[in-house]
Design goal:
The chain is mostly beta strands and 117 residues long. Helix content is 0%, strand content 49%. The chain has a six-stranded mixed β-sheet with strand order 2-10-9-4-5-6, with no helix packed on it. The chain has a four-stranded antiparallel β-sheet with strand order 1-3-8-7, with no helix packed on it. β7 and β8 form a beta hairpin.
Length: 117
């Protein structure tokens, strides 16, 4: 049974930083491209960044390029998202999952990130 536990969110002022972590179990973690997603109030969930089995391959949505860094440690079944220069528009619930996950797949509870102006 897949389990995804996100942590590291919180309240931060604009320009601040946070580091999110996601511990995964119940899947062959190293076989999957993993991703971070976010859902802001009243908006659909969107992909923020993805990382292949090796951190040599990464993708970022334009809104976070140059500010966020995704990484993973396969030995710990964990994926990270370092978020710098945070903006109020980054406020959302952040989730991790397989990059190919759909709304019908299992999703964890996410971690709330709130950026104040």
């Amino acid at each position: 049974q897949v389990q995804l536990i996100e942590s590291g969110g919180g309240l931060v002022q604009a320009g601040g930083s946070l580091r999110l972590s996601c511990a995964a179990s119940g899947l062959t973690f190293s076989s999957y491209t993993m991703g971070w997603f976010r859902q802001a109030p009243g908006k659909e969930r969107e992909v923020v960044a993805t990382v292949g089995w090796s951190t040599g391959y990464t993708y970022y949505t334009d809104a976070v390029k140059g500010r966020f860094t995704i990484s993973r440690t396969n030995a710990k079944n964990t994926v990270y998202l370092q978020m710098n220069s945070l903006k109020p528009e980054d406020t959302a619930v952040y989730y991790c999952n397989k990059a190919s996950a759909s709304s019908r797949d299992y999703w964890g509870q996410g971690t709330q990130v709130t950026v104040s102006s």
